[in-house]
DNA sequence: GTCTATACTCCGATAGAC
DNA sequence: GTCTATCGGAGTATAGAC
């Protein structure tokens, strides 16, 4: 009843790319953990980059959905809160959190990846969705920072002091305040 | 009247490490840009890691100075503002901005680097320097995010819309508000 | 779908001449 | 202080048997 090999490759790759970085993770390592040889991976993915592509596309479509949702709503305080909660939930969900985290940590290595460039554009659009045309520089910075705040819990904070749940609630709170500026 | 070779290596390495990532930058590239061979680099630095070490140690001592300064002051609103401005200036100054930026972008690649671990500890200490013992989770997250805000201008924001000076002022403002929470 | 075997390239690093 | 030459290893990727 185990998953198919393709999914297991994605899973292992995502974890190692996140922990060690994309370039520092070799296909040999991934194959070894999976219990096959390097060559076997090439049956499932054309190249190393193809593994990345399969991961980041999931994230892109998630962001596109969220953007469409935001645009379909009135720009009220209630929408803001619901948006922040949805975004935070997406970052947190086991499936997508991993991908978001991987992206944060590998911006340099993947800086020319076409899908990543699209993801960045969508994030910018999301950040400015609650910004009025005549907004001040301070407001623009605040709003951009709000999205980042939702990712920040996992590595800005020392997990010894606060529980995961506390951190989650706190980042949502901080993000909302930044958006309300 | 040009600088000595050692400084030029640091300068080229810093730029390329920041733009492309540490692992993606080879010594051959650095040597080529400098106009020498790889082997020549080894006269100036024992290993590739040694180049990194020479860079990050500058940043560590800068943070240590700042931490000592903060601790020598009363925890007043005036100190807060002066601290934020000093920190922002340090991030901004051509010399150190590059190093800070390099560190942000290579956290994964350098995650086991002893000096980087120290730098992270100092940053945590700085962030918590304005946090009362009984502070809420929201306050802790805000304060951690404040330091990050001072770095954020360069890559969260689209430089087309706002001037560098406007972004600088805005990040200082946002950081102060986060610290005052 | 997975294997062995291998091609080819690049890496960081060293030895030793100049 | 810089060079040429080279080492050993690891990387991605492919060919072809099973």
Description:
Two copies of one chain form a homodimer. Chain A is mainly alpha-helical. The first copy, chain A, is built from nine helices and no strands. The longest helix of chain A is centred in the first third of the chain and has 24 residues. Chain A starts with a helix and ends with a helix. At the A-B interface, helix 1, helix 8 and helix 9 of A face helix 1, helix 8 and helix 9 of B. Chain A binds a DNA duplex (18 and 18 nucleotides) through helix 3. Chains A, B: Keywords: DNA-binding, Transcription, Transcription regulation. Chains A, B: It comes from Nonomuraea salmonea. Chains A, B: InterPro entries: DNA-bd_HTH_TetR-type_CS, Homeodomain-like_sf, HTH-type_TetR-like_transc_reg, HTH_TetR. Chains A, B: This is TetR/AcrR family transcriptional regulator.
């Amino acid at each position: 009843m185990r998953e198919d090999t393709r999914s297991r490759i994605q899973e292992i790759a995502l974890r190692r790319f996140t922990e060690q970085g994309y370039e520092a993770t070799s296909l040999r390592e991934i194959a070894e953990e999976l219990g096959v040889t390097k060559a076997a991976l090439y049956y499932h993915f054309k190249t190393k980059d193809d593994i990345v592509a399969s991961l980041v596309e999931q994230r892109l479509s998630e962001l596109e959905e969220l953007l469409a949702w935001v645009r379909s709503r009135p720009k009220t305080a209630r929408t803001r809160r619901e948006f922040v909660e949805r975004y935070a939930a997406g970052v947190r969900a086991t499936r997508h959190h991993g991908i978001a985290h991987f992206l944060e940590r590998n911006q340099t290595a993947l800086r020319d990846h076409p899908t990543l460039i699209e993801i960045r554009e969508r994030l910018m659009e999301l950040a400015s969705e609650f910004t009025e045309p005549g907004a001040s520089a301070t407001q623009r910075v605040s709003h951009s920072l709000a999205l980042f705040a939702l990712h920040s819990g996992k590595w800005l904070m020392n997990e010894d002091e606060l529980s995961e749940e506390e951190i989650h609630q706190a980042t949502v709170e901080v993000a909302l305040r930044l958006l309300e500026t």
